[in-house]
Description:
Elements: H1 11-20, H2 22-44, H3 59-102, H4 105-116, H5 121-128, H6 132-151
Amino acid sequence: MRNGQNGKPNNYQKVEGMLGNYKFICLGIQSNKETLQEMENSLTDIGAVDYSKEKIDTTNETYQVEQKILEAERSEPEKRRLYANIRRNQRKIDQLDRAITELPEQERRIIGYRYLDQLPWDQIAEHMACDVRTCQRKRKKAIKKIVIAVFGEP
């Protein structure tokens, strides 16, 4: 498949890219969630200054609390970016999962072998008990169906 007239990837290429990066998209979602959790955990460390102690200089303690609050405020744009990444990438995975689920079994298996297991065509053909060319045709047909499911048009 060639790029469109404007040099951008067409929908077929986009779906192939999404399938080829499926595992890494899932890993990215998990990494973003872990980063957000670490950010949230660092906020729970912010405590109040205890003024009840006698003759204690609270200036340093107050400064540390203020620094943590400022750090939390500075991290807000990063948190929004991470949440947006998670939503966008989870949407991609959900769209692919729904589309793949609806494929006929043979097409679904070929997509799984090729993109998730990253098997070469000769091994896919062996698993499917047919020739390489037939597997490639079924993959192309399956991707066209996924394109319609994901983008709403061929």
